[in-house]
Amino acid sequence: MRAIKRYxxxxxxxxxxxxxxxxxxxxxALAIYGVRRYLATAxxxxxxxxxxxxxxxxxxxxxxxxxxxxxLAGGGTSAAASHELCDSAAAAVPAAxxxxxxxxxxxxxxxxxxxxxxxxxxxxxxxxxxxxxxYQYQYLRGANxxxxxxxxxxxxxxxxxxxxxSAVGDIDGDGTxxxxxxxxxxxxxxxLALATQVFVxxxxx
Length: 205
Hints:
The model has no long low-confidence stretch (mean pLDDT about 85). The protein is elongated. The protein is α+β, with helices and mostly antiparallel strands. Strands 2, 3, 4, 5 and 6 form a five-stranded antiparallel sheet that branches. It is about 25% helix and about 15% strand. The protein is built from two helices and six strands, in the order αβαβββββ. It has a domain at about 45-65 and about 85-200. The protein starts with 13 loop residues before the first helix and ends with a strand.
């Protein structure tokens, strides 16, 4: 009359427990991969945004009219205003590519992004960074950055008729492979044409 239903109280079998553990393991692996990918993407977004900002600075500098300072004699006429790209930055910032670490730019006068003049380098571009950075940045007028990570980037205009803003990094810190980002522009018939998007090579290296 008072029979006990033993099967209503049975526990999980070993097979069921192994399946649950396997599922948790797969989900954990996917989560770890997703987090790593997210962190890497956050780092590369620095390079893309910064290269874009340097490019905008170069375009804005070209759009500004440059007039020579002159003292004119009576009846004289000043030289016509012109449009000029900023000359190349004296050096890349930082001097060495950070390897999985950040570099704090030196804000002292004449250092890092404060090195240049009204017609040369970073001050001409009205560009500076005060926060730590993962990448080495360079601005060149009339030339491409020759680092291997930027092989294949669109060539800029010959002579002084173009520019390239670039970033090279080693966010995984292996010291053997590097990521490269670049965007440039070329002057044609007095107009500055920019690359349609940022060139990217080995994004997560």
